[in-house]
Specification:
By secondary structure, the protein is of the alpha+beta class. It has six helices and eight strands; from the N terminus they run H-E-H-E-H-E-H-E-E-E-H-E-E-H.
Length: 248
Amino acid sequence: MPTSTSRGSSKKHAIKSTNNGDNGISLTTALFAIAIAFLLMAFAMPSFLQRFFRPMSTAMGITGSGGGSPRPAIPEGAEKATVGAGCFWGVEHLYRKHFGDKGLYDARVGYTGGDATNPSYKQVCSGKTGHNEALLIYYDPERVTYRQLLEFFYRMHDPTTMNRQGPDTGNNYRSGIYFHNEEQEKIAKEVTKQANDQWYMGKIVTEVVPAGPWWDAEDYHQKYLNKNPWGYECPSHFLRPFEPLEQK
């Protein structure tokens, strides 16, 4: 008959063995779960990264799905506005979303304010051409005014950061209004002053200059976030809950 001590030792040994078995199962399960997680990340990472970092080529998932971006016919009497507010993917997306059924005929992303002729995206991103990523808007002045477009402009991005929007830095991300005539110049300067005084406490660094030559960006940039719903969108692109500007 085994002694009490031997029974105690056997019980402890049995418990230890059982715990070792549980640990083994838990470790195996954990390793398996980690392996599955890495596999899922491998498939999801391009889309995930695009939410935070701008891809420079199709290697990071830029697609030109849709087979081209034909321009819609622009009716007689349409007017145009040109603005730069950082990464043009998000700028276009927000303007289309908010004015698509309120008088916006078309919006094209492209390059303006530089020296080179017909620059490429890569050249503009280098900062050497002096171009800004911008949005060219065609709109119905009977349904939406130039002032409304500019007030929206000052609400949807941060105009207080020089050559920067969110994590995107460089002169191609500068805040700018590019007017097309004297009336637009007058309104642009008025709205800028009002937004500077009432919303941004004198910190606006937006350039307000005449519109120069315009170059459409490559086709895969047009309606980019429609084609790539999980694509990058600058985190500084959102509507600020400001009170309406007071007209003085």
